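Forum: Protein Structure Q&A
Topic: Joint prediction for protein chains with partners

I've read a bunch of threads here and the consensus seems to be that you should model interacting components together rather than docking separate models afterwards. I'd like to see that in practice. Below is the full input, 867 residues plus whatever partners are listed. Could one of the regulars post the assembled result?
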Amino acid sequence: MQTKKTFSIKGMHCASCVMVLEQSLKKVEGVSEATVNLATEKATVTYDSQKVTDATLSSAVSNVGYQALITEEIRTEDDEQKEKQQELRALRLKVIVSLTLGGLILWGAFPGLMKTAPMFLQNFWVQLLLAVPVQFWAGFGFYRATISALKHRTANMDTLVVIGTTVAFAYSAFVTIFPQLVTNIGIEPAPYFDTAAIIIGLILLGRYFEARAKAGTSEAIKKLIGLQAKTARVVRDNKEMDIPISEVIIGDGIRVRPGEKIPVDGIIIDGESSIDESMVTGESMPVDKVAGDTVVGATMNKTGTFTFKATKVGGETMLAQIIKLVQEAQGSKAPIQRLADLVSSYFVPVVIMLAFATFAVWYIFGPAPSLLYALLNTVAVLIIACPCAMGLATPTAIMVGIGKGAEHGILIKDAESLETAHKINTIIFDKTGTLTKGQPEVTDIISFDGRAQDEVLSLAASIEKGSEHSLAEAIVKAAEAKHLSLSAVEKFKAIPGRGVEGTIDGKRIVFGNKRLMNKEGVDVSSEGDRIGEMESSGKTVMMIALRQAHGEAFKLVGLIAVADIVKESAKEGLCALQKLGIEVVMITGDNQRTASAIGQKLGISRVLAEVLPDQKEAEVRKIQAEGKVVAMVGDGINDAPALAAADVGIAMGTGTDVAIEAADITLISKDLRSVAAAVVLSKKTMRTIRLNLFWAFGYNVILIPVAMGALYPFFHLLLNPIFASVAMATSSVSVVTNSLLLKRKKIS
Amino acid sequence: MSIDKIIVFIAGVVGIGLTYWFFLANKEKEIEVSDSVDIIVDGGYSPEAISIAKGKTTKLNFIRKDPQACLEEVVLGDFRIRKQLPLNQKITVELTPQRSGEFVYTCGMNMYHGKIIVK
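Posted by a regular:
Agreed with the consensus. Here's the joint model:
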């Protein structure tokens, strides 16, 4: 009988593992199909259950060095979600019970309020009875955590809660059981069960809100995972079939219809469409794609139907890479966190020591009844201290900040880069491919001698067709776009550094720069001004001259100007940076004239021209030596050393893998406005972290002395332990909520 | 000063001293790990300090037995790793450290600390 089984595999780390495992599994007699997915680290095997057992599959996997977890229960996101929900429900029940019982005790014990309470609630024994479940059932988690922490000789917030509430509860129980003993030492026997119960209730309430808020900090990853399509319509053996995307293999032809999600990355082989890539790039305008263009998994097909060939699947797709990058970045540590790290490792023991000191000082020097003052102030010190807020201040903001960046197509490699980005005061842009499109286009065609512009373009394109020069491609493309017919060229010759020549219909044609024209004796002086004007606006001008017959002179018949077009978003993007007070510098290998022209067009005053690729890094270091915090934006392999040398390297996602690898921040979209958005995101995240740390530290630094009674000698002011617990419960929640507010902030 | 106050004073000083000794003077010796190690997450990390070799891949298998929310995440900030630790499940983290030194890892709230010493 044919059986299909999916199980996890441990130890996989690369695409070749997939091949090795599949081969090993397929070799097992009785196995008809085996697919292994690297992204999910799972194998799906179809086999004859009469011949194959779990043990044979397991040994086929272990023979090649991996481990099969065949009997392991596969946990899904749903299972974890359910578990989380159950925990939250249990916590809510404890909050309700402890606050209700605590409220009843408070009603029967609080001076003033107790007169309105029924008599039985004022009975100490009834109060003890109500307090026991709160202390030992609702508060059980605190005890459990404390005991296991003490085994490791460490202490945490639970330790403080346990000591504080146990002191209050034990004193109250003693007063209830032995009231006479307390009276004998001159203290009125009054228990503080309300304090212990309400403190537990409020701290649990704080934890409940905190758990709910914390779930929001990792929402970005869930959103990214949710973007993925579930199935793909593959064409195999001329048949279309829907299969789970985990079963798609490289080379599969996949059909996508209007309104469907593109399942994996690939190249369109047939058809055309308009595709909404906003979920990955952050760009709102749909992009038109035709055969030969790449498509990205998880983006949305809008209008047309097309077929594409899968080139990246599983963990190799762009979305999977983004998810991995965001996950890693969210786990990284920002340098600003170091202080909080240092403080938190000593915090709880120091608070316990302060509690001992508080008790002793109040008992020895405090007013009568000094035991009561000592007791209540010690409890207040233990309860007010909140190390959690300090621990949560930086990481929650980093997680939200990095997640928000990913939603806008800004991928930040780690927390340190996010932190450094807010200090940037100079940004160096590589010109070609970053500020410009990197693909020269024909901008002007000027014809002479009564010829049409199209005729000039057609002649130039015909002769350039055989050339490999980058400008030739622009001219041929322009002719193709106008559907011009090209003529056959004879005796073609490329003249390096000058241009090309050839014969069309018996007429000799030369096409190239001024040096070529001079060589052939073509007079271009009448057009000198026009040529100069175009060159100073950053264009490369080429001239075409024609000779009717051998022995005649060449005559200028046209000019064609080619320029690398500046990206639409460049001006706005740079303007946004200048508004932030950041100096913009352009770096390029182009000649000074072209570079200055583009610099002027974009409002860049500092232009570094004629910089050879290997000198870019040195230029970055030179600017750093001026005391500037420098970011470098680039896209090519030659930018990689400069990207790595800069304080923050920013790669355009359309660039090469090498550049992305060397960069700290990758912008998936081509839109240059995202550079400013990345800086703004960093500034806002840092502001949130500082505010969080200010609250977390300020809260502890100010309120612990108040709880110790620092204000008592001057204002007779003391902190009631119940108010201490309110402050503690709100402190962590306020820090997490402040981090979540980052989500609402605009960065572009 | 009455006798009870003297006793409280002495108890306070002893209490502070004991707290310091118990929590802060605690220097656990590190465990040397060659390929993989099981780290039990229960009121802290056990073993708390491990030493691993530079440039070599070592597997850290975290097994959380403690239900408190604080421990449900482990953060190895220096290695850019943040992992959820489902209760009673083995979660493996692979490290190939490129530089030596002491690296502290923590729970999601920075309350519990463990140490990785790369030699």
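Residues 77-215 of chain A form one domain.
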